[in-house]
Structure formats: C-alpha cells, structure tokens
UniProtKB/TrEMBL annotation:
Name of this protein: Probable cysteine desulfurase
InterPro entries: Aminotrans_V_dom, Cys_dSase_SufS, Cysteine_dSase, PyrdxlP-dep_Trfase, PyrdxlP-dep_Trfase_major, PyrdxlP-dep_Trfase_small
Classification lineage: Bacteria, Pseudomonadati, Pseudomonadota, Gammaproteobacteria, Oceanospirillales
Similarity section: Belongs to the class-V pyridoxal-phosphate-dependent aminotransferase family. Csd subfamily.
A molecular-function term among this protein's GO annotations: cysteine desulfurase activity
SUPFAM superfamilies named among the record's database cross-references: PLP-dependent transferases
Aminotransferase class V domain mapped to chain residues: 26-396
Function: Catalyzes the removal of elemental sulfur and selenium atoms from L-cysteine, L-cystine, L-selenocysteine, and L-selenocystine to produce L-alanine.
Keyword DNA-binding applies: no
Enzyme class: transferase
C-alpha cells in the first residue's frame, strides 16, 4: 500500500500554517505554482549568508563554493531526468525560456519555408506562441494534432499529419488545463520514424511522475522549478548532446564564449555553457537542486500515487453537484480537476471560494485554443500536490456546493 506521511511532509511547508480570510489555507493551485518546503527556502539564507559570489570566474573560495553548488545541481538535474550526460542540462528562466531557446537556436538553424512543425491543441501558450512568432519570420507551417471530447490526443490523426517536410513535434507531457497525460514515448517513436525531432514540455509532468528522457527518447525536454517545489526564475532545458552541439548560440554575452575578438570570429563555449549567457540565477539553481532532492527523497512514485487518490476523491466529491461538468476525462490523467458549472461563472466561483480559504484557479489557463474547442473561455481548476489531503478536498467540495448554491 502506497501511503505518504502527509502530516510529516506538511510540516516542511511554512505557508500551510497561514490563514486566508480567517480560514486555514487550502492551496489547490499547484499546477500554476507549487509551494516551497523550508529546506528550499533555507538555501537562500545559506547562499546569501555564506557564499554569495559569481560563478565560473573562480580563484577565490566563495566563487569556488558557489560554482561547485551550481554545477552540482546540474548533476542533480541530470539524475532527475535520467539524462546520459550532465552537459545536456541547460539552465533557463523556466519552461517558457527553454522553449524559446529551442525555437530560436534549433529552429532558426533547422526550419525553413515549406517545413512543418506539429503542435497539439492541448498546448500551453508557451508552446504555441514561440512557434507562431518564428513561423511568421521563416515561413514554415504549423499543423495541429487534434484532441477528442475527453481531452485525449488523436494518435491516428497524429500519424497522418506527418509528411516528408515534418521537422519537429512540440507537445506537452501533461496538459495543465485538463491534466491529460500524453503518450510521449510513443509520440517520440513516431516522430523519429519520420526523421523529425520532438520537444516535450514537461512543466506539468516533472512534479508528478518520474521522468526518464532516455526511455522517452526525447530530443528536448523542458520544465520549471516553481512547479516542482522549487523557486521561480529557474527552469531546465534538456537537449540531446549532439543536437545542442550543432545548435548556434541564442543569447550572446559573458560565460557563453571561449574567446572574444574584434578582429577574428568570436568562439563559443562548449555545451551547456554556450546557452547560458550572463550571470545565471545562481541561488535559484541551487535551490532547484534542493527541491529536486526533496522530491526524490519522498519519491515521485509515492507522490504520483497519492495525487491519483486525491484526484479520485475530488472527482467523486464534485460528481454530486448538479450542473457541474468536468473538462478532461482522459483515462491517464494527472492531479488536475478542471470544471464548469451551469449557471455559475467560473470567476465568481473562484472569488467566493477564496473567501473560504480555498485557492483554485479560474480562467483560460493559457490554453485558449483548447478551451475554444469546448466553447469555453474559462474553467475552474483545482490541482493537487503531495501536501494536499482528502480532508482539504472535502472542505473544497463542501465550499463549492455552498458557493454554487449562492450563485444560482
Ligand atoms: N507549459 C505548461 C504545460 C505549463 O503548465 C506552464 C506553466 N503554467 C508552462 C509551460 C510555462 O511555464 P513557465 O511559466 O514556468 O515558463
């Protein structure tokens, strides 16, 4: 039996002690950002109190210590993703920047007019807009993998979209709006069969399931620190070494060069530093490493199983609310419960339930193309993390019943 010691784990999160409108906080907006354990918060005190220094410029103790902690995190991330080589881990500001890096560095070098890029209707705007911007400049075509009524990608249609001009598939591992878990290993296999590359947006997968980029056979994989119990301002791009090596740099500046000359061509650092121009978010990277160790100590299998129980409990709980419709009913689903209620605006539900101390998200979840297929411009979304409990979900469901009763 898989059970998490939730009471113990909750004590790691100072924020869970706070009240909102005089009620205990029940935080169910984890798909937007997760809360941060004190072990991660303490990294900041330690770093700024003891060894704050710029990295890679060494020759003094503080800089050496900061560099060791920063580069040590690269190894932590490598292990977290089961990448083959720590040089395949590039630190970015987040998933959004990681995707923009691939678009601008790989995309500019590999895409031209007439080429085709496949994205899905499930994508977050951050995996749509960078491709639209680039397509506007380079003239390639974006084709869209359709989604069925349950929020599941149509794999037969996916296979049919490939032509000899398909260069890239850009798809999320888990949908933030509906929670759908996509069969990314199978999708990678099909992409590779057609000589295309695959970029996987793992922003919503990394907090909930063990990731193995080699087993998936991902070419690129991106995630954000702040959704996996870490800080904002930092994220990761995994890229297969030979792809990163062949890619031109994106941003120029310090740290990413070997030699700079005004007379002969400037030469660039080896990967991954070629893609890390300027002083990075040093404390954030180190804190991300601490977050990933916190997650690994508990175990993603345990966390995923716990969240599946929470999802089931919540799904059963809201089933009794008349006129409530769940969006996203994929058989393989992460801890995301997206719903609308007849006669009650999502925004109003969100505002009123906040008065009860319950934080959920309302809106389009940066997935307007997906919601538009369902004739919606907003849903309510409750999303779960390791520290949530069935008791909290009971309070959420009772609160939702009350709020809906008030609104109609
Ligand atoms: N992709 C998905 C699936 C997401 O859920 C998010 C965050 N909501 C992002 C990308 C963007 O992540 P970030 O804002 O941290 O760059």
């Amino acid at each position: 039996d898989l059970t998490l010691d939730v009471a113990k784990l909750r004590r790691d999160f100072p924020i869970l002690d706070r009240e909102v409108h005089g009620k205990p906080l029940i935080y169910l907006d984890n798909a937007a950002t997760s809360q941060t354990p004190r072990q991660v918060i303490e990294v900041y005190d330690d770093y700024y109190g003891r060894y704050n220094a710029n990295i890679h410029r060494g020759l003094h103790t503080l800089s050496d210590e900061a560099t060791a902690a920063f580069e040590g995190t690269r190894e932590t991330v490598r292990a977290f993703l089961n990448a083959a080589d720590h040089r395949e881990i590039v630190f970015t500001r987040g998933t959004t920047e990681a995707i923009n890096l691939v678009a601008n560095a790989w995309g500019r070098a590999n895409l031209k007019a007439g080429d085709e890029v496949l994205i899905s209707r499930l994508e977050h705007h951050s995996n749509i807009v960078p491709w639209q911007l680039l397509a506007g400049e380079l003239g390639f075509t974006i084709k869209v993998i359709p989604v069925d009524e349950r929020g599941v990608l149509d794999l037969a249609a996916y296979r049919d979209l490939f032509t000899e001009r398909t260069r890239l598939v850009a798809v999320n591992h888990v949908s933030n709006a509906f929670g759908t878990v996509n069969p990314v290993a199978e999708m990678a296999r099909v992409a590779h069969e057609h000589g295309a590359r695959i970029l996987i947006d793992g922003a919503q997968a990394a907090p909930h399931q063990a990731i193995d980029v080699q087993a998936i056979d991902a070419d690129f994989y991106a995630f954000s620190g702040h959704k996996v119990y870490g800080p904002t301002g930092v994220g990761v791009l995994y890229g297969r070494a030979e792809l990163l090596e062949a890619m031109p740099p994106w941003q120029g500046g310090g740290e990413m060069i070997k030699t700079v000359s005004l007379e002969v061509p400037t030469t660039f650092a080896d990967i991954p530093h070629k893609f890390e121009a300027g002083t990075p978010a040093i404390a954030e990277v180190i804190a991300l490493g601490r977050a990933l160790r916190w997650v690994s100590d508990i175990g993603l299998d345990l966390i995923g199983a716990w969240e599946a129980r929470l999802l089931e409990h919540a799904t059963e709980g809201v089933a009794g609310i008349e006129g409530l419709r769940i969006l996203g009913t994929a058989p393989d689903k992460a801890g995301v419960l997206s719903f609308v209620v007849d006669g009650a605006h999502s925004q109003d539900i969100g505002l009123l339930i906040d008065q009860l101390g319950v934080a959920i998200r309302t809106g389009h979840h940066c997935a307007q193309p997906l919601l538009s297929q369902f004739g919606l411009d907003a849903t309510c979304r409750a999303s779960f993390a390791a520290y949530n409990t069935p008791e909290e979900i009971d309070v959420f469901v009772e609160g939702l019943e009350r709020v809906v009763g008030m609104l109609r």
